[in-house]
Write a structure and sequence with these properties.
This protein is mainly beta and 130 residues long. The chain contains one helix and eight strands, in the order βββββαβββ. The strands form two sheets. Strands 3, 4, 5, 6, 7 and 8 form a six-stranded antiparallel beta sheet that branches. A two-stranded antiparallel ribbon has the order 1-2. β3 and β4 form a beta hairpin. The longest helix is centred in the C-terminal third of the chain and has 8 residues. It is globular. It starts with 32 loop residues before the first strand and ends with a strand.
């Protein structure tokens, strides 16, 4: 599966190397739930790997170390959008990086942080951009 990404080279910090200690950039997990009204959707505690990373009037963006890494083109149909599992395959190769999935919708927003293999944890949620 080919992914179009934004490639920004960042200096590697040996302090973030591979080790068994929880990285210092890990944020505490928070509880998901309904944001706004009952029609605004449910925000999961853990983001499923089959989540479609769509982009239209709002949608998903993936960042790596605070810089945009991936955003689906707006003209891609939902069913053809890349799943989070495609990003997970790349992230597994760079586990020392701070990977986040940002959802920004009119009435709901959320940020998930990758904290280990196949583990995208809710670390922030809000009321969206409208």
């Amino acid at each position: 599966m080919e992914i179009e990404t934004y490639n920004h080279e960042l200096p590697q910090d040996p302090a973030l190397g591979l080790h068994s200690v929880k990285p210092s950039f890990f944020l505490p997990a928070i509880k998901g739930g309904v944001a706004g009204c009952l029609n605004c959707g449910y925000t999961d505690d853990i983001l499923p790997l089959d989540t479609k990373l769509y982009s239209s009037f709002g949608g998903w963006m993936i960042s790596k170390n605070g810089i945009q890494f991936f955003r689906e083109k707006a003209n891609v149909e939902y069913d053809n959008s890349k799943p989070l599992s495609a990003i997970e395959l790349i992230a597994k190769e760079e586990p020392q990086s701070d990977w986040r999935a940002h959802l920004d919708l009119p009435l709901r927003s959320a940020t998930y942080q990758r904290q280990g293999d196949n583990n995208w944890i809710l670390v922030e949620r809000g009321e969206g951009f409208a």
